[in-house]
């Protein structure tokens, strides 16, 4: 699944399949300007920052069990969000620092480093990566991902895929080759 925020005509947190199909709103009320999103892959939670409402909130993957984790003016300056183990990691654009915040009660805020500029933040750690199983976009014997000549996107499950083409090409009638 792909999770994302949108604060265009109607603010929302959504999810869809990797190929863009099955788009579903998971949060669409009490939301103004969701700007950062992070996933807890183990527990299947979606966290987001709403800088207008000055809140950091959480729901499960189906949009249930919503609750505010942190509320207040300090949220206004946060950019990017990552979650790992017991902490959030974010960037404060006001004082240019990377922060670590206890994700269960919003306490234990610690500045870890200073950067001149940042917009996004990610935590890469082996334990945070999910196990990869055989999937529909694996390379075929000819070196083509999922048998697609350009781009292979996982669909509704790991056994289904959709082929897409790079800009300037169109998908052939076989659903795999680009012309």
Features:
0% helix; 13 strands; 179 residues; Laminin; four-stranded antiparallel sheet; elongated; 2 domains; single chain; mainly beta; Neuraminidase; 39% strand
Structural commentary:
This protein is mainly β and 179 residues long. The chain has 2 domains: 2-125, Neuraminidase (6 Propeller), CATH 2.120.10; 132-178, Laminin. It is built from no helices and 13 strands. The chain has strands spanning 2-6, 12-16, 24-27, 34-40, 45-50, 55-60, 67-71, 78-84, 87-92, 97-102, 110-114, 151-154, 161-164. The strands form 4 sheets. It has a 4-stranded antiparallel beta sheet, with no helix packed on it. Strands 8-9-10-11 form a 4-stranded antiparallel beta sheet, with no helix packed on it. A 3-stranded antiparallel beta sheet has the order 1-2-3, with no helix packed on it. A hairpin with a 6-residue loop joins β12 and β13 (161-164). The two termini are 28 Å apart.
């Amino acid at each position: 699944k792909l999770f994302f925020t949108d604060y265009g005509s109607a603010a929302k947190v959504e999810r869809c399949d990797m190929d863009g199909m099955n788009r579903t709103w998971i949060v669409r009320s009490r939301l103004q300007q969701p700007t950062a999103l992070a996933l807890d892959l183990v527990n299947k939670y979606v966290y987001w920052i709403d800088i207008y409402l000055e809140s950091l909130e959480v729901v499960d993957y189906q949009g249930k069990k919503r609750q505010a984790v942190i509320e207040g003016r300090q949220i206004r300056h946060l950019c990017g969000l990552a979650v790992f183990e017991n902490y959030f990691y974010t960037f404060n654009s006001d004082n240019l620092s990377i922060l670590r915040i206890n994700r269960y009660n919003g306490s234990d805020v610690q500045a870890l480093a200073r950067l001149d500029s940042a917009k996004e933040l990610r935590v890469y750690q082996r334990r945070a990566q999910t196990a990869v199983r055989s999937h529909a976009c694996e390379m075929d014997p000819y070196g083509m991902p999922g048998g697609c000549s350009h781009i292979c996107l996982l669909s509704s499950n790991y056994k289904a895929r959709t082929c897409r083409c790079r800009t300037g090409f169109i998908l052939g009638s076989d659903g795999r080759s680009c012309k």
